[in-house]
Design brief:
The protein is an alpha+beta fold and about 280 residues long. Helix content is about 25%, strand content about 25%. The protein has helices spanning about 5-20, 60-70, 75-80, 80-90, 185-200, 215-220; strands spanning about 30-35, 45-50, 55-60, 95-105, 120-125, 145-155, 155-165, 170-175, 205-210, 225-235.
């Protein structure tokens, strides 16, 4: 868990994003407040946060009352799940937005950060980002990033991390490793380079990860990032569902679908159709 000092910094940063005091949050319920004009979160109209054992949501005016009906008598442990994303999206979908989450927010400061130095990593010139395929490295940020770090095998880019400003003092690390290279420590190498750079600039590293992404969560924890909060947020566009859990509990462990094929959700359409 983050230190008390880092927790206080997260609290102040989060209150700026939400535009409300976290004193309005509650332990076993999720208060829904109207989104103030001072809010800086980039969500188009709804953000729910679970921080330090308490929860609160802010929503645009016309979503407040419908959202209250959704969360009424719903414990936060239910809301901050895929079930909560489904239920809140019943409010947002008629207006062309859906709710994604939960996402875990991981934080570090100079005391908790454990980034390595890996000679395989190259710091990129930001102008080089224009030539990168961000359909492949889609968890990273493109042109407009503050810094970028890469690992090449020959002429092939196999790992990339980028840094973007998330509001003082936090800078977010995005990372991707190409298929087939995920078990070679490349993710930790580029995450470490990005976090080391953030610390050198006087900032604090931040990364977000979804619960299904076991390998990325392991990598972030190895670098010293600690769980700080959970968020659900509205995003423009149709409803999206997460994949099955990624990774294995042990490298040689067999893993199986618990449900038979007939129980799979046949209504899920491929990601490729979103580009059409």
């Amino acid at each position: 868990m983050p230190s008390e000092k880092l927790n206080q910094t997260i609290r102040s940063w989060q209150e700026t994003r939400l535009g409300v005091s976290l004193q309005a949050s509650a332990t076993n319920t999720v208060p829904v407040l109207e989104r103030p004009t001072a809010a800086t979160s980039d969500s188009p109209g709804l953000v729910a946060v679970r921080f330090d054992g308490r929860s609160v949501a802010v929503a645009r005016r016309d979503w407040v009352e419908p959202s209250k009906k959704v969360v009424s008598n719903m414990h936060p442990d239910l809301l901050f799940t895929a079930f909560g994303a489904y239920e809140l999206s019943r409010v947002t979908l008629p207006d062309g937005a859906s709710v994604w989450g939960p996402n875990w927010y991981m934080f570090a400061d100079s005391d908790s950060w454990q980034g390595l130095i890996d000679d395989r990593v190259t710091k990129l010139n930001l102008g080089d980002l224009g030539g990168i395929d961000f359909d492949l490295f889609w968890h990273c940020y493109g042109p407009g990033s503050m810094a970028a770090f890469a690992v090449y095998e020959g002429n092939d880019l196999v790992a990339l991390s980028t840094v973007t400003d998330r509001g003082t003092p936090f800078m977010e690390i995005g990372v991707d490793v190409v298929q087939g290279a995920q078990s070679s420590g490349l993710g930790l190498a580029v995450v470490s380079a990005a976090g080391n750079w953030i610390i050198e600039q006087g900032g604090l590293p931040l990364a977000t990860v979804a619960p299904f992404n076991v390998p990325s969560t392991r990598t972030l924890r190895r670098a010293g990032l600690e769980y700080g909060m959970t968020e659900m947020s509205a995003v423009e566009g149709p409803f999206r569902v997460p994949p099955q859990p990624m990774g294995r509990p042990l490298p040689d462990a067999d893993i199986y679908d618990y449900y038979p094929d007939w129980a799979m959700n046949k209504g899920i359409r491929p990601r490729s159709e979103l580009r059409g």
